[in-house]
Amino acid sequence: MAKRTAKKGNSNELDGKEFFAAIAQIEQEKGIKPGYMMEKITQALLSAYRRDHEGMGENLVIEANQETATVRLFLKKDVVETVDNPASEISLEEARIALPQAQLGDVVRIEIKPKSFGRIAAQTARQVIIQGIREAEQGMVYDEFSSKEHELLTGVVTRIDPRNGSVTLRIHSGSEFTDAYLSANEQVKGEHYVEGQRLKVYVSEVRRATKGPQVLISRTHPGLVKRLFELEVPEIYDGTVEIKSVAREAGSRTKLAVWSADPNVDPIGACVGPRGQRVNTIVEELKGEKMDIIKYSENPAEYIAAALSPADVISVEELPEGKSCRVVVPDDQLSLAIGKEGQNARLAAKLTGYKIDIKPASAPLEPMEAQEEALFVEDEAPVEEAPAQEETSLD
């Protein structure tokens, strides 16, 4: 019983060693930077005391000394002859009880013991500390994942919303993890997800939100293809081969323009890999999405012609109005150049940044043939009218 009484008697006192040990333990377990929790707890103690004592302003101070393992709370008051505000002023007589040499105009500090804190104030302090820990954790998550923007991460599907089809994934980066949101608009049409499935996603944006950092991910972003090639092709990762541009219609087809400054390196062959192993791995990850890998050229005509692959191109003529061109292809290659529902031409335009007008080889001759046919009809018209006039005159 004596031991219990002793503990109870000291329960209102703040044990400095335990206080600093608790802070150190919290920072170590949560990975919070040193000093952060001390700042939050200091704010909590000040808020707690102000809650129970109206009129308290900036005259509250806390001294925390880790070396001496002491934490002390002081209330600063001005020594005055007549007290108008008891929260910030003290009479000369009362001040001299604690400090005999006190004079009018001096500022005295009165130490406040933890037992002066009420129950509600203590709860307020506790809430501030808990909130401080939560904010620190959210800050670390945000810092970690904001550094992963435009990168590729692997997540595990934890929830699928049956109402709108959105998917929640648990993603990890370093020692941090969070839940990321894959909206229906960022999903590839035809892909089906199940809980527990591992999925590679592209981190498009990280935002600060009231409930913590919000990580937006995508399966349709062209950057996903670029990062997958960086993973599979060592030459891209080390910079020997460079991806110049990517145009993608997720779930259907992607065009990729690659280039190498090293004349001894074939950029297309490096991306395809031995027996197509590298590109096949990426196609498999993207559930069968077709890949067109072309060689980038600084010559716009060569670049545009390559972008319309697999169609053959006869000529490319740059037009004076903006970035646009006219491309001539063999008649039997016209549908291949345009692609199903215009997809091939559309992706080539996205890849090169040019407006592309595709014409068959016979198209340039059509205007000339039409003019010749019109002239031929005009020449024949008078010949047909002459006999008709003669017959009429005979009658």
Keywords for this entry:
elongated, OB fold (Dihydrolipoamide Acetyltransferase, E2P), 4-stranded mixed sheet, 15 strands, 13 helices, alpha/beta, 395 residues, N Utilization Substance Protein A, Chain:P, domain 4, GMP Synthetase, Chain A, domain 3
Which word captures the global form? elongated
Total helical segments? 13
Low-confidence stretches: 1-14, 365-395
CATH class bucket of the largest domain: Alpha Beta
What does this 3D model show about the protein?
- The protein is of the alpha/beta class and 395 residues long.
- It has four domains: 10-140, NusA, N-terminal domain (N Utilization Substance Protein A, Chain:P, domain 4), CATH 3.30.1480.10; 147-207, OB fold (Dihydrolipoamide Acetyltransferase, E2P) (Beta Barrel), CATH 2.40.50; 221-296, K homology (KH) domain (GMP Synthetase, Chain A, domain 3, 2-Layer Sandwich); 298-373, 2-Layer Sandwich (GMP Synthetase, Chain A, domain 3), CATH 3.30.300.
- Helices cover 40% and strands 26% of the residues.
- The chain contains 13 helices and 15 strands.
- The strands form four sheets. A five-stranded mixed β-barrel has the order 5-6-7-9-8.
- The radius of gyration is 39 Å and the shape is elongated.
- The N and C termini lie far apart (148 Å).
